[in-house]
Every structure is written in C-alpha cells, then in structure tokens.
C-alpha cells in the first residue's frame, strides 16, 4: 500500500471514530430529553433536588417567607419557593401578601390594612413579627430582603430558590441575583410564559419555572372537564412557542384516593401526556398537590406517573418522601 493510500486510510479511521463519538453524544442527549433530563442510565432520583416548599414554609410548620424558614428548607435538602415584591421605597422583600393582615402580629390594625407595595416603607415593616401567627416560638421571625436571602445562598451551590415574582419585576430580581453571584441558583417563577421570555432577555440562559394551575372548584364532572380543557389549551399555547426558555414546570394537582372516577385532577391520562411531552423537550416536571398533599401516598403516585420533583404545603411529608425515594425504600 502506497504512502498516500495509508494516509487516506488513517484519515478515514479518524473520521469514523469522530462520527461514532458524535452519534453517541446525540443518542445520549436524545435519551436524556426523553427521560426528563435524567440522562442515559442515570438515577431517576437525580432531579429530586428541584423539589421545593411552597412559600418556604407551607401551611403549618414554619412561617412562610422568612429567612429562618428558608434555611430550614435548605438544611433539609429542599429548595424553596418564595415571593418577591417591593416596598413603597423600592426595597425588594420576600412577602406573599400585599398586606400584613395575615402574618403580622403586634402592630396596629390600620397598619395591617395598608398596601406594602404602595403605602409602607422598609423601615416601617422591617421589625414586624411575622412568625407568631403560626406559633409564639416563631416570634423572632422577620420579613427578609431579597439581598439577605440571596446572601444566605452564596457559597452554597445546592441552595436553590424559586422566586415567584409579585411585582418586583424580572429585571430587578435578575440584577439582585447577579450582584450576589447566585444567578445559577435562582429560578424565575410564575404563571406567565411571556415574563419568562422577558427574564431570558435580561439574563440569557437564566433558569425559570413555569407553574400551571386550573384551580378546579370541586370534583364534579363539569370541573374535571374544565380543568382538563384548561391544561390542554395551556399546552397548545406553550407548544406554539416551542416551550422556549422554560427550565422546569410545576403542575397543580388535586388528589383524592377515594374518588371512584379518577384520584387526580387534572386526569391521570392527561398528567401522563403532559409529563411525556415536557420530557420530550428535556424539561423536568414537578407537581404541587393542593389536595392530598398531607399524605406521602400522593407524592409516590406522582413519582410513578413520571414526575421528577414536587412542591408542597407540607414540608416534612415531602422531606420524608424524598429521603425514601433516594434510599430506594417506600416504607
């Protein structure tokens, strides 16, 4: 064999090796998408770190949207969802409601009725007790600023925060995350796909979570149909925009194991369809069971339906489920 032929042969071998590597990579990527980002041969529990506590504290265990509660979630291996708005003087704070009526204690009634965003300054609310509404042992809890929250995350890469924007604006949240150096740990969160597009313009490649909820009123046949129709319409709208810039999804579900028709709203077949479609785009899917979330059963059912993670109003229940799933034990 001549020298030229040998060189051609060696070149062809190199090309074939390169093609094989490229094809293997494409196959792995395709499988990763089909498995909701779990990856080829990956552990199905890999995405459980996206599980998060609604408002940071849920309903009963710890005050919502306080720094102490956030740290409690992180220390239990969970992410958290919080709510960000601004005070009258432009300070970003973590607070769900636009008044202090539900969570504040020890302040005049007229102060409780005022709009935090339009009528109250940071100095007026920074020392207000927002923990005693749940228990006297939480009397030291105060409203945290977005700066304090992000500062607590810095240097702890596993501390994730799903920021549900309540008027602070994507640009402000992105700026604060970048200033703190935690932009890779912050997910812009909410029901608006349009705002996620805005978030991506401000923070290209920034993470986001879109939540989808139909808010059914009861479990009648009409409400089941309405809920399923709402979700199908929502999927069509997302499909039209090619699911762009969505890093994760959270679906509102309602669970009743005694329901003779279907324990889930939206329906079980539709949940499977949606999960599979999101996975085909490489998007992991969580669910918050607004009904039934106090039992471990619903989280295991959701996991078996293909959900990758959870959100919850019952943190300790979810913490227990995650520990069991990671250990491969359900008892």
Task: Summarize this entry quickly.
By secondary structure, the protein is α/β, with parallel strands linked by helices. The protein has twelve helices and ten strands.
Q: Judging by the overall fold, what is the CATH architecture of the domain at 53-86 and 144-327?
A: Alpha-Beta Barrel
- Work out the number of β strands: 10
Class derived from helix and strand content: alpha/beta
The percent of residues in helical segments reads 40-55%
Tell me the CATH topology of the domain at 53-86 and 144-327.
TIM Barrel
Question: Runs with pLDDT <50, length 5+?
Answer: 14-42
CATH class of the domain at 53-86 and 144-327: Alpha Beta
* Annotation field: number of helices: 12
Gap from first CA to last CA? 68 Å
Mean pLDDT: 90
Q: Which value, in Å, is the CA radius of gyration? A: 23 Å
Order of helices and strands: HEHEEHHHHEHEHEHEEHEHEH
Which strand order do you get reading across the main beta sheet? 1-2-4-5-6-7-9-10
| Relevant CATH superfamily of the domain at 53-86 and 144-327 | Phosphatidylinositol (PI) phosphodiesterase
Q: What percent strand?
A: 15-25%
Keywords:
single chain; 331 residues; alpha/beta; TIM Barrel; 8-stranded parallel β-barrel; 12 helices; globular
């Amino acid at each position: 064999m001549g020298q030229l032929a040998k060189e051609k042969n060696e070149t062809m071998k190199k090309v074939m090796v390169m093609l094989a590597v490229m094809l293997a990579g494409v196959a792995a990527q395709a499988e990763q998408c089909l498995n909701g980002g779990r990856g080829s041969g990956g552990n199905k529990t890999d995405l459980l770190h996206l599980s998060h506590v609604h408002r940071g504290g849920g309903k009963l265990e710890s005050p919502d949207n306080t720094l102490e509660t956030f740290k409690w979630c992180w220390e239990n291996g969970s992410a958290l969802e919080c709510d960000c708005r601004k005070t009258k003087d432009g300070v970003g704070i973590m607070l769900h409601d636009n008044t202090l009526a539900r969570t504040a204690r020890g302040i005049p009634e007229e102060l409780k009725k005022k709009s935090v965003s339009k009528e109250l300054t940071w100095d007026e609310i920074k020392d207000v007790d927002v923990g005693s509404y749940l228990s006297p042992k939480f009397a030291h809890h105060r409203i945290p600023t977005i700066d304090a929250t992000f500062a607590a995350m810095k240097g702890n890469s596993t501390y994730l925060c799903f920021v549900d924007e309540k008027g602070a604006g994507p640009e402000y949240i992105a700026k604060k995350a970048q200033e703190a150096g935690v932009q890779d740990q912050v997910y812009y969160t909410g029901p608006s796909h349009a705002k996620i597009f805005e978030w991506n313009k401000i923070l290209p490649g920034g993470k986001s979570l879109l939540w989808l909820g139909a808010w059914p009123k009861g479990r009648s046949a009409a409400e089941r149909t309405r809920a399923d129709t709402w979700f199908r319409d929502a999927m069509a709208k997302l499909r039209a925009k090619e699911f762009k810039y969505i890093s994760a999804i959270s679906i509102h579900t309602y669970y009743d194991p005694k329901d003779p028709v279907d324990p889930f709203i939206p329906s079980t077949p539709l949940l499977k369809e949606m999960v599979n479609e999101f996975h085909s785009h490489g998007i992991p899917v969580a669910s918050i069971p607004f009904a039934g979330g106090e039992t471990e059963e619903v989280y295991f059912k959701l996991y078996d339906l293909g959900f990758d993670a959870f959100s919850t109003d019952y943190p300790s229940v979810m913490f227990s489920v995650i520990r069991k799933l990671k250990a491969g034990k359900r008892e």
